[in-house]
Design a protein that fits this description.
Structural class of chain C: mainly alpha
Largest sheet of chain B: none
Helix content of chain B: 55-70%
Distance between the termini of chain B: 44 Å
Chains: A mainly alpha (492), B mainly alpha (314), C mainly alpha (222)
Oligomer: heterotrimer
Distance between the termini of chain C: 60 Å
Shape of chain B: globular
Helix content of chain C: over 70%
Order of helices and strands of chain B: HHHHHHHHHHH
Chain lengths: 492, 314, 222
């Protein structure tokens, strides 16, 4: 079986297979095994993409993986593995506390691999229409995951998520149709290929007005799914109401997968229109997201909502990095994608542990002293918070530094200063919020020892990976990222 | 001489055909509701009956009360004479087109409302104010819809020109502007002729009346003239709808054969439109008064869209 | 294809597209849920007819597939599904919208103009039918407006589906021979599954909130 199809089939089979299984342990184990396998397959894909001709295609170019796709595959599989490791014990505690029924737990273990399979399909398929279909599939599978707890707030969050997401995707479909129409040749009855690689090769001949209009629609549409302001209003609700492993996957990778789809159109638009149009729009929306997120982090009372706004900020920063359009900033944006995808899930896992221990996410009700109640969790949370706010020696420090230095070097001093200001605001916000819950004397007593170690393997895995790769980027990984940077920058 | 003959013949046609349409509508409505219904020629007998009866006039009535039936009758007839019925050139077409048409109908309605107020009865005043409310929103829609067709006829508001310009392959009439204008005019027809869902012509409860309330005080030959005018107005608006939008079979010359054929076509089209009106009346309930402007503003928007689509769909 | 045939086809397509617009406007002012579902079915029928006409006049057989899928899915299956939902939930009438019907109609008239202006530079690209792209953009805008104006969940689902209809109209109007079949199939199945998922959510919302009023979904703020 060929590699790309294997990457798609493994999680799909795991998800559908869980329909037949009845015990939670077996389902969790199946998920972990499937995602572990995809990590291995992702590494293999990486190895193949590094070697010339730097592209892996299957089924007559229907599936196509270049360096950018390989990087995304790796991110998706690592985050999914972490979530799967965390989810087993998380749901054990939820079942014991009566927050979910076994039917819902089964729903989680069936839908999550399908969600991941959808994300893999987005990054591996060449056909832009099928890419849209895959994004819609990920949206639909994640809706029921968001509504898993069936509380009134969960349903509200799921409703907003599905409505805004579907609306955005309908707009993106319009943009996709427009892009295809630009490639249609009026005189011949042969249908042109809808493949991204084919469109890139004829980019110079596409009608620029149509591509402009198409890009605007795609930006609003896929931007809604990526959580760019001002279309982000579903994000805090959905990411806070979903169960913690799902929040981790949503914040960690699904936003980036939507951003990937947007980037494919950005690359096409740049090839057709020249550099300034699409990158300016990305820059504006990215900056907007960063500035919108910062005040909300400061005044936030709900722990997971605060983390969701932090995701908004970081997606904004990635867009700014791509929008500044110098090789250094784009490389920084790619680095940022990776490190954020490792850090944010850790924070969500820690938040999940706190939620289950205190039965609330409201920080004033959680009170002080989590460090004494859940020491392991608090350590991981502290380290992850240090990472997310951009403190050295964690990777996010390096990626933010790269983007900022690239921005200053390319002459965008004002913009870079603004970005720095937003990052500082978020830094203060998150640290302030965490001082409200971590240090000090706790109100509740320490729970039993068994639950103290729950979730630590998952968090440890993510933090460990983060720590290792913050300081050492192996050569193949570096090469893949450089190739991806070249693809985004328009030099395939 | 020919023109005088044409005027006379069209007047006779209007007066003779109008009660037939009214009677058909009443009869078919009853049949659709599983009743036997009045005879199709009953309105003629009603008019005869009214003409023979005495009149009782309130002592508070002024000259307006006595003048109104005549003004209404004459203005409606004049409006009808400007419309092509059996031949493409209407008798009074050199004297006016769409604007004169709407203006004459408005004159008649104005006096009708005054007549309702004049007898100083509460119901009359209520009917007049309701009628004016409806007219305020219906007339713009009427004008816009007619202007839409005028634009496609080389921007002439003369009805004869519009009919002549529409000759050609039938499917050319199926452009969106015409369809939208037809829909708008159909709603305006229901409003102007006082049909359900705007007004119930067969109601006997004064508080639900609009048109009937204004003519409560009239009797005898005045009532005959008013009823006749209402029938003629209905005929005229229906003829506007069928002849401007589907000018199939209208005679372009004045030979007796083609005029006769044209007359048959006219009656057939009018009966078809009456069937549509009966269907709408039977399947809908009367709207409450404050909802009628909603319906008419929908007609207005349809008419505006029709006008827009003349250049939207070039 | 002779010029006369081309003109006849253009006429029919323009007429049907205008019909879709009128039906959309009717949905904006219409309050009864079951009637709105029927209006949506009518609109999808017109879309299927447009696709069939294009397939006939361009001899493009796979566009027949599009017409067939639209017919089966959007004219029969989805309205049946939504009807079942409405009957299960037992709520039949819309409550007062945010903007009253006259103002809504005026706003939608404005959207029509806006759609025409946006589509103006691209009118030369359509092979059959005049300005159907303008109507597609208008359907998008009016669908948006419908989603924010109404408060019942099912009407919001219908609004989403009309936006989808607008996009399919654009696809059919711009790309003369349609999009590759795999894409059309994918879009079709996505829409079906989306409505089913939405149906599940609507049912759960009804159970939890005892109402389909979307205004009640306003606890999460900030």
């Amino acid at each position: 079986m060929t590699l790309l199809i294997a990457i798609l089939i493994v999680p799909a089979v795991a998800g559908l297979g869980c329909l037949l299984v009845r015990t939670r342990q077996v389902m969790a184990a199946a998920n972990v095994a499937a995602f572990g396998l995809t990590v291995a397959l992702g590494v293999e894909l990486l190895r193949r993409v590094v070697a010339p001709p730097h592209v892996v295609t299957e089924c007559e170019e229907f599936f196509r993986a270049d360096a950018l796709s390989a990087w995304m595959v790796l991110l998706i599989s690592v985050v999914s593995l972490g979530s799967a490791l965390y989810a087993g014990n998380y749901f054990r505690r939820d079942l014991a506390a009566g927050a979910v029924t076994p039917g819902r737990v089964k729903e989680y273990f069936v839908l999550t691999p399908l969600f991941a399979a959808g994300m893999f399909l987005v990054v591996l398929v060449n056909n832009l229409g099928v890419m849209w279909f895959a994004l819609e599939a990920t949206a639909l599978s994640s809706v029921l995951l968001v509504a898993l707890y069936n509380r009134s707030t969960s349903l509200e969050a799921a409703w907003k998520y599905v409505m805004l997401g579907s609306l955005g995707l309908a707009l993106a479909l319009f943009g996709t149709v427009f892009t295809y129409a630009a490639a249609v040749d009026k005189t011949s009855p042969v249908l042109p290929s809808f493949n991204w690689s084919h469109l890139m090769s004829v980019a110079g001949q596409l009608d620029p007005r149509m591509i402009k209009l198409a890009f605007v629609f795609v930006l609003v549409g896929y931007g809604t799914k990526a959580g760019l302001a001002p279309m982000h209003t579903w994000l805090p609700d959905a990411h806070s109401e979903a169960p913690s492993p799902t929040s981790a996957m949503l914040s960690g990778v699904s936003l980036k997968v939507a951003l990937y789809a947007l980037l494919r159109f950005h690359i096409l638009a740049t090839a057709c229109l020249g550099t300034s149009f699409s990158r300016t729009m990305l820059l504006v929306l990215g900056l907007g997201s960063m500035f919108l997120a910062a005040p909300f982090i400061l005044v936030q009372n709900n722990l997971k909502r605060m983390l969701a706004y932090s995701s908004l900020e970081h997606i904004g920063l990635i867009c700014v990095g791509v929008g500044l359009n110098s090789p250094v900033t784009i490389f920084g944006a790619l680095l940022h994608m990776g490190y954020h995808a490792l850090t944010k899930p850790t924070l969500f896992f820690a938040a999940g542990n706190i939620h289950q221990a205190c039965h609330t996410l409201q920080m004033r009700l959680i009170g002080l002293g989590m460090a004494k109640v859940l020491p392991g969790t608090a350590v991981c949370m502290g380290l992850a918070a240090a990472s997310i706010t951009g403190l050295p020696p964690f990777g996010l420090f390096f990626s933010e530094l790269t983007i900022l230095s690239g921005g200053f070097a390319a002459g965008h001093a004002a913009l870079s200063t603004l970005v720095l200001a937003a990052l500082l605001a978020a830094f203060c916000g998150i640290l302030y919020q965490l001082t409200r819950i971590l240090p000090g004397i706790p109100r509740i007593t320490r729970t039993s020892d068994a639950t103290l170690t729950d979730g630590l393997p998952a968090m440890g895995l993510m933090l460990g990976t983060l720590a290792v790769f913050s300081l050492w980027l192996p050569a193949p990984l570096l090469q893949v990222m450089q190739q991806a940077r070249d693809i985004i920058g328009g030099k395939p | 001489m020919n023109d005088l003959l044409a005027i006379l013949l069209q007047t006779i046609l209007l007066l003779a055909l109008a009660p037939l349409i009214t009677g058909s509508v009443r009869n078919w409505k009853a049949k659709l509701q599983n009743r036997r219904g009045p005879r199709v020629w009953q309105p003629y007998l009603d008019l005869l009956k009214f003409l023979q009866k005495d009149m009782v006039i309130s002592e508070h009535a002024s000259w307006v009360f006595r003048a109104m039936p005549y003004v209404l009758f004459v203005s409606t007839l004049l409006a009808g004479l400007m419309l092509p019925l059996v031949s493409a050139s209407a008798p009074l077409s050199p004297f006016g087109g769409a604007l004169a048409f709407v203006g004459l109908l408005a004159l008649g309605r104005f006096f009708l409302a005054l007549g309702g107020l004049d007898a100083a009865s509460a119901f009359g005043g209520m009917g007049s104010s309701r009628e004016m409310t409806i007219a305020a929103v219906a007339e713009p829609a009427l004008m816009l819809a007619i202007f839409t067709v005028a634009i496609t006829a080389d921007r002439s508001t003369n009805f004869s020109q519009m009919v002549l310009a529409a000759q050609g392959p039938t499917w050319k009439l199926l452009n969106p502007a015409h369809v939208l204008a037809f829909a708008a005019l159909f709603i305006v027809l229901l409003a102007e002729t006082g049909r359900i869902p705007v007004d119930n012509p067969a109601t006997h409860l004064e508080l639900t009346m609009i048109h009937e309330a204004m003519i409560l005080e009239y009797s005898g030959r005045y009532l005959a003239l008013i009823e006749w005018s209402a029938s003629v107005k209905q005929l005229v608006l229906m003829a506007l709808l069928v002849n401007i939008f589907f000018p199939v079979g209208i005679a372009t010359d004045l030979s007796p054969a083609s005029v006769g054929l044209s007359l048959l076509w006219l009656v057939a089209k009018l009966l078809a439109l009456s069937a549509a009106v009966v269907l709408v009346e039977t399947t809908n309930a009367k709207l409450r008064l404050f909802r009628v402007p909603d319906l008419l503003s929908a007609a207005f928007i349809l008419a505006t869209l029709a006008l827009l689509s003349t250049f939207l769909f070039q | 294809m002779t010029p006369l045939q081309s003109e006849l086809a253009s006429q029919w397509i323009t007429l049907l597209a205008a019909g879709m617009l009128v039906v959309q406007l009717l949905m904006v002012v219409q309050g009864m849920l079951l009637t709105n579902i029927r209006l949506f079915a009518l609109q999808s029928l017109m879309l299927a007819a447009i696709a069939a006409i294009i397939a006939f006049f361009h001899n493009a057989t796979h566009v027949y597939w599009v017409a067939g899928l639209t017919l089966v899915g959007k004219v029969f299956f989805l309205p049946w599904l939504l009807n079942r939902q409405v009957r299960r939930i037992q709520i039949h009438e819309e409550i007062e919208p945010l903007l009253n019907s006259t103002a809504s109609m005026l706003l939608c008239g404005g959207f029509t103009l806006l759609g025409y202006i946006v589509a103006r530079p691209f009118t030369s690209l359509e092979r059959l039918g005049n300005n159907t792209l303008g109507i597609a953009i208008t359907l998008l805008l009016t669908g948006f407006f419908l989603m924010f104006n109404r408060r019942k969940a099912i009407t919001q689902v219908l609004a989403l589906l009309t936006v989808e209809n607008g996009v399919m109209l654009a696809a059919v109007a711009l790309t003369t021979y349609g999009m590759p079949l795999v894409v059309e199939l994918g879009i079709f199945f996505d829409v079906m599954v989306a409505v089913m998922v939405l149906g599940i959510l609507v049912y759960r919302i009804r159970e939890t909130f005892a109402s389909m009023d979307v205004d009640k979904l306003s606890q999460l703020k900030g």
